[in-house]
Amino acid sequence: MWSFPLALPVFCSWSLALMIVLLQPGWVAAAETADVDVGLYALGAFPSDQGLVAQGGNPLDTRIANGAGAGIKAAVFPHYFGNIVGVGLEFFGHGSEITFSSPARTGSTASTNLWVFNSTVNLTLRYPGKAVVPYIGVGGGYSSGVLTHANIPGRSDRDFEGSWTLSYQFFGGLQGNLTEKVFLFSEYKYVSADYHWKELALDFRSQYAIFGIGLRF
Prior knowledge:
Elements: H1 4-22, H2 25-30, E1 34-47, E2 52-54, E3 63-64, E4 67-78, E5 85-101, E6 109-126, E7 132-151, E8 160-177, E9 182-197, E10 200-216
Antiparallel strand pairs: 1-4, 1-10, 2-10, 3-5, 4-5, 5-6, 6-7, 7-8, 8-9, 9-10
């Protein structure tokens, strides 16, 4: 089980570790045979309201709020493949809120904060244009859904609870090159993960709008 106070430092430490790895001499040497793209971004999350199973029922009035967050990603595009195929790592997180009518107590509204943290390995295909670079990709890895301040009738644990699971994503976007080394990017992403907590489960499906800035080494 993971709490939000624990998950946030872990997420930040992964991001810091990624930056440290990219600054190692081996990556500098790799830049001679490959493009290395590193990006930081802000995101808007737009989850589906479907897929919640609560206390043995499927509430029809489930609402999963839109959220905001941030992420970091890096990818290596070998020159051998014409800078078209890339493999990379990505970490991102955001907040949301779940509300629904409690099946355990008629007329009662249940609510809980939901924090989502994803870490994935991505495969990216891009067209290496000079000014604009379109790309698409897929990824898979681990996702953590953390509940905090759970106000759910009949539930003894109101503080926090985490669920680790496998996740996958599809994405597509555009890079706009400001200089040879600096670029802006905008991306659409779709993520799927299945979370399971005590007396609560969610087939999490969400769309994301991403805007960020990156460096190319």
